[in-house]
Amino acid sequence: MPMNMTENEITLAIIKAVQEGKKKSFRDIIDELQPYDMYQQYQAIPSKHKYKFLYYLSIEQLTELMEELELDDKLDVLHRLGIERSTKVLDLMENDELASFLSDLEPEKIEELLSEMKPKESQMVQDLMNYPPETAGRIMNNRFVWIKKHYTIGEAVEKLKEFAELAEYLNYLYVIDEDKKLVGVVSYRDLLLADNSQKIEDVMYGRVVKVDVYEDQEEAAKLISRYDFVSLPVIKEDGTLAGIITVDDIIDVVIQEANEDIEMLSASGKAIDFNTKPWVAAYRRLPWLIILLFVGLVSGGIISGFEETLDAAVALAFFMPMIAGMTGNTGTQSLAVVVRGLVSEDLTLKQAGKLIFREMWVGIFIGITCGILISIIAFFWQGNIVLGMVVGVSLLLTLIIGTLAGTIIPLILYKLNVDPAIASGPLITTINDILSLLIFFGIATAFLSQIV
Amino acid sequence: MPMNMTENEITLAIIKAVQEGKKKSFRDIIDELQPYDMYQQYQAIPSKHKYKFLYYLSIEQLTELMEELELDDKLDVLHRLGIERSTKVLDLMENDELASFLSDLEPEKIEELLSEMKPKESQMVQDLMNYPPETAGRIMNNRFVWIKKHYTIGEAVEKLKEFAELAEYLNYLYVIDEDKKLVGVVSYRDLLLADNSQKIEDVMYGRVVKVDVYEDQEEAAKLISRYDFVSLPVIKEDGTLAGIITVDDIIDVVIQEANEDIEMLSASGKAIDFNTKPWVAAYRRLPWLIILLFVGLVSGGIISGFEETLDAAVALAFFMPMIAGMTGNTGTQSLAVVVRGLVSEDLTLKQAGKLIFREMWVGIFIGITCGILISIIAFFWQGNIVLGMVVGVSLLLTLIIGTLAGTIIPLILYKLNVDPAIASGPLITTINDILSLLIFFGIATAFLSQIV
Question: I want to staple A333 with a disulfide (CB 3.0 to 4.6 A). Which of A238, A313, B156, B268 is the partner?
Fold first, then answer.
């Protein structure tokens, strides 16, 4: 038993067992490993031993390994397993895992893999894949125990024992009526504490928190984190129970949604991680950068429109990066607050109005503080009180407008159901750049005679 | 039963029951509500009914309500309950919830509340509060069932039934030896499928994934999301079992850590949500803005250092915002990739080297593409091929340097264990601003005779 062995020692023991053809020692080691650790070991051993590693694993262990692997490695393992074993593994894989794996493949490959599977398993996966990405239906699974409402507690416990292998968590049993509609939920705790002859419908909890198959996965995440559930039932339009979403999938959703928010704030493009190839990463980041390059030229165009002002008072150029940068910063701050607030709060019209009003006041406070500060600095640096006033007033105005732009633009996009990635951080920054230059040079031009 | 009532109907029914003094109808409604929904109802009813609402709740329900409330409302409820009931509620509250509530209070208030509680409960909460914030010890709780390794399966099931009320999840039982050291874990599934007379130590799983009390809460989150557990045991230095961390707390950790990353990228300051008062929000965002204001003035200083160049070729000013903006954007993109990558990947030196190398290539690809593009645009706009070349080459260099700065700075800070908030997005943007202006004006000055 590898209880007290380090990971490296386990790797060596596995290689030894594989080399010497000792299947039993190999299994003894693997049996003690969690799926993630088995996956780490599979990654760690030299390539030439991988074939035998797979050969020695049971179908259940292969399935666990498959669920941990990256896309390319999944395909590689299926290929190495051959058609018979790989089909058994696909049949055993969790439906939601399989659906998510298949949806990354070419249509022909999907069909090829599905055609070998058991019709029932294959049909269930296809059902899942028919729901749009990032909906509750797409991430649900069928590893739960349901009972009928007329069961007694005793009957329910029997069924629970029978399906213990299948159910992911044993915390709740979902109760359905004759039409398979979800009508209640019973916790395992309730079963333990109730009398064996009592009816389920008398002890069940009838006000079930549930989610529709077509609901956004973020909504499911919000409910699970709000109610501290470990699973959430998913229902079809007719109220029948379609599946459950489990908390481990929700953690992945929460991380994924946070990453999407950050990709949006930084325009870094979808799903770049440490292992993405440089050209792929560059290709994903470029579209935004090129758009922003053109938008940046608009700023340049504005400055060129004020060429005479700039020619007359080159000192204005010294304050340009500060004003543009500050406006961009406040805009991004407001944007971040709005985007992350929506993760846990529902957005009502009242809430939105309150938020805009709050951010306006934040802009005013920040603007007054920074405006006074920069007026004093500009006056001492350039020795011109009007220049100081122009810079200060410009900063006050641009900070208020920048804060409001960073609040209102994402709120409008959210309400219009437009992909909020459009309101990415750099775009807000660039819009605020343009607004700030217009305000700054506009005011400076009006007072030009007093500045030079 | 309010099974099919809307939230508004429930609110009206609750108000009616309270007004007419019908405690039984009130309880019937509340019994069907989840803690979060009860909290929503408490928020929804008019203030004058809140006293009676609290009066009608059982101690258990009050405890559930308390755990949902915001800080100010918690204090308000404790005040309304009076010393006797409020102490009962505090005794019943989950230790981690109570520790997190108390740590937001003044020391005198903490002492006052703790002194009334049962010595045992009070001691446990104080133990938790002794662990530093954001460690595993701080977020663990004691709602788990432990068994000794020499128990039989039958004895373990008995103990499980006995403590079913107390345990949060019934998925795993933790196994300890004579010295209270954690030596194994048994899933409830294993219990159901094993023979009643078997010994626990023969069926338990010995290679327990666990976390140290002083470990960062992020590490606990990484383990739970990696292994798909619903709870994770926490051990003290001597190997004894101190508590468990449950998945519902980990979801909060994941959201909190994502928010911290975003606060860092946007410098929006800690814990600003939709309900923060405007002056508080402004106060939290200001420190960074003022620092960035001064850093922005450094950019201005650089430009003023190149005043002669700028005077001779005002057209250079037109490209300034674009070059500075683009460099800031690539830096933020790299920063975002590094920061979020660390959420799920462990950072080895090899991994860091690989990442820097990858980002360098991304910078080169992006730099060449955008450099060529802007050279052509600049040539056609200003009709000067040397100006076009100067702008293009500057952009190529600044994009490579910007990408590297956005990668290396956060990696160094992470390795030095410096609060990564220092590498906030606006700071990277501003550093990149300065670098890009130096490069741009440096090259432009060298070729000045050919530009004008």
Answer: B268
State the total domains in chain A. Answer: 3
Shared-domain flag, residues B415 and B295:
yes
A127 part of a folded domain: yes
Q: What is the CATH number of the domain that holds A206?
A: 3.10.580.10
CA distance B230 to B248: 8
Please indicate, yes or no, if residue B109 is contained in any of the structural domains.
yes
Specify burial of residue B79 (Cβ count, 10 A radius: 0-12, 13-18, 19+).
exposed
What is the mean pLDDT for each group of 10 consecutive residues in chain B (452 residues)?
A: 75 92 91 90 91 92 91 89 89 88 88 88 88 91 88 88 74 89 87 84 90 92 89 93 91 85 71 74 82 84 87 85 86 83 74 88 93 92 89 94 89 74 69 89 89 72
Residue numbers of A between 378 and 437 with CB closer than 8 Å to B: 425-426, 429-430, 433, 437
The beta-strand segments (E) located in B177-314 are: 182-187, 211-212, 231-235, 241-246
Contacts of B334 in chain A (CB under 8 A): 268
Q: Which of A114, A139, A164 is the last residue of a domain?
A: A139
Q: How far is B140 from chain A (nearest CA, A)?
A: 15
Q: Which residue has the tokens 């649900």?
A: A140
Pairing verdict, β A146-148 and A172-176: parallel
Q: Is residue A264 part of a domain?
A: no
User: Hey, which residues 182-201 in chain B have their CB within 8 Å of chain A?
Assistant: 188-189, 192-193
Closest-CA residue in chain B for A318?
B300
Helix/strand/coil for B451: helix
In a domain, A418, yes or no: yes
User: Which structural domain range is residue B348 located in?
Assistant: 278-451
